[in-house]
């Protein structure tokens, strides 16, 4: 026949084991949730990377299009209107005399 102290000792060991199992289950649950969060984050980051790569490819493709060099004749023909030029000169003289 088992003694009372051995029964109490077994019950205490059983309670300790149950607490450890519950703690382990809780840890597994937390780890599982963290893993699910990490997987969702990974999916988002892969989508962002894909979008960035697409944008980069589009930018590179558009940058390979040659840029039109402005023609000097066009720049000269689009001269400043005379009225605006003379007004600028008048303002410039005024600034020079007051300074």
Brief rundown of the structure:
By secondary structure, the chain is mostly helical. The protein is built from three helices and no strands. It has helices at residues 4-63, 72-77, 82-98.
How is the secondary structure organized here?
Elements: H1 4-63, H2 72-77, H3 82-98
Description:
- The protein has 99 residues and is an all-alpha fold.
- 84% of the residues lie in helices and 0% in strands.
- The chain has 3 helices and no strands.
- It has helices at residues 4-63, 72-77, 82-98.
- It is elongated, with a radius of gyration of 40 Å.
- The model has no long low-confidence stretch (mean pLDDT 83).
H/E topology pattern: HHH
Query: Which regions contain 5 or more consecutive residues with pLDDT less than 50?
Result: none
Overall pLDDT confidence: 83
Class per helix and strand makeup: mainly alpha
What radius of gyration results from the CA coordinates?
Answer: 40 Å
Secondary structure: number of strands: 0
Highlighted features:
99 residues; 0% strand; single chain; mainly alpha
